[in-house]
């Protein structure tokens, strides 16, 4: 199963966003080449396989991250690290 994950843009350089996953110190490089609209630091994206699929509003991103955290915690019995 493949999952797309919400990520928050920290900065953008040459069509690539440096994004943070949740509250972690994990950052990923995300290609913006598939995005139709403009994005800026502070925006949330839904990311799959290194590509931004679409922009999310903050509430949707935070709710989705919480669902993913809950899934990790139920499966592993440990607190999610993001």
UniProtKB/TrEMBL annotation:
It comes from the Bacteria. Pfam families: HupF_HypC. InterPro entries: Hydgase_assmbl_chp_CS, Hydrogenase_HupF/HypC. GO terms for biological process: protein maturation. PROSITE patterns: HUPF_HYPC (PS01097). SUPFAM superfamilies: HupF/HypC-like (SSF159127). GO terms for molecular function: carbon dioxide binding; iron ion binding. NCBIfam families: hypC_hupF. Belongs to the HupF/HypC family. PANTHER family: HYDROGENASE MATURATION FACTOR HYBG. This is HypC/HybG/HupF family hydrogenase formation chaperone.
């Amino acid at each position: 199963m493949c999952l797309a994950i919400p990520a928050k843009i920290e900065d953008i350089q040459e069509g690539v966003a440096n994004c943070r996953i949740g509250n972690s110190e994990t950052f990923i490089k995300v290609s913006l080449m598939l995005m139709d609209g403009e994005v800026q630091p502070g925006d949330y994206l839904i990311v799959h396989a290194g590509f931004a699929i679409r922009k999310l509003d903050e509430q949707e991103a935070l709710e989705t991250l919480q669902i993913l955290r809950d899934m990790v915690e139920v499966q592993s019995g440990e607190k999610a690290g993001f």
